[in-house]
């Protein structure tokens, strides 16, 4: 089965954001991945609700919103209203993860959780039935262009086994350092969705790069 591709708009040209969103509309991308950073949960600040709304106005692909922020529950409805089709919160930022996931689902959109490289997938065992997506961070969150963490493959395999054992339909998303070298191994391990930022937007032909990832 072909992977779903979610180019990260964080790596786009912010001075030409509409142009880059329209390029993604015409590409083989399945989602547009939107990284929200607050400078507290991660050591970087990206953009927030108004820019998400602006992206949504031009996007014809679902917005896959990744909240790398503290107190994410306070912003779920705002990001849904800004156009999110999927909202992923960080396991490490949620005091009551299942309550957060329930709140997302009550908004009528898909619920995801993201986990940092040091967080074991086994901690999600009691939440899988509530999850449409698990985003495994394959770099430390906060900045694009980092080197892929090799331990990711085994995490994907373990999570895939957990999902199959429970009979869930949860998708496994990989975020960070994804390229044509590691994408086939990630798919073999059980990944479903590949997030690619710098690899796509820094290439000479982003649409072609997306197609190559789609057809690995």
Features:
216 residues, alpha/beta, TIM Barrel, eight-stranded parallel beta sheet, 8 helices, 8 strands, 20% strand, globular, Ribulose-phosphate 3-epimerase, EC 5.1.3.1
Query: Class, according to the CATH hierarchy?
Result: Alpha Beta
Report the biggest beta sheet as strand number plus sense, adding barrel if it closes: 8 strands, parallel
Number of strands: 8
Q: How much is the average pLDDT? A: 96
Distance between the termini: 10 Å
Overall geometric form: globular
Helix content: 25-40%
- Side-by-side strand order of the widest sheet: 1-8-7-6-5-4-3-2
Organism: Algoriphagus ornithinivorans
Enzyme class: isomerase
Function: Catalyzes the reversible epimerization of D-ribulose 5-phosphate to D-xylulose 5-phosphate.
Cofactor: a divalent metal cation; Zn(2+); Fe(2+); Co(2+)
Folded structure, characterized:
The protein has about 220 residues and is of the alpha/beta class. The chain has one domain: Aldolase class I (TIM Barrel), CATH 3.20.20.70. Helices cover about 30% and strands about 20% of the residues. It has 8 helices and 8 strands, in the order E-H-E-H-E-H-E-H-E-E-H-E-H-E-H-H. It has helices at about 15-25, 50-60, 75-80, 95-105, 150-165, 185-190, 200, 205-215; strands at about 5, 30-35, 65-70, 85-90, 110-115, 135, 170-175, 195. It has an 8-stranded parallel beta sheet with strand order 1-8-7-6-5-4-3-2. Helix 2 links the parallel strand 2 and strand 3 (about 65-70). Belongs to the ribulose-phosphate 3-epimerase family. It catalyses: D-ribulose 5-phosphate = D-xylulose 5-phosphate. This is Ribulose-phosphate 3-epimerase.
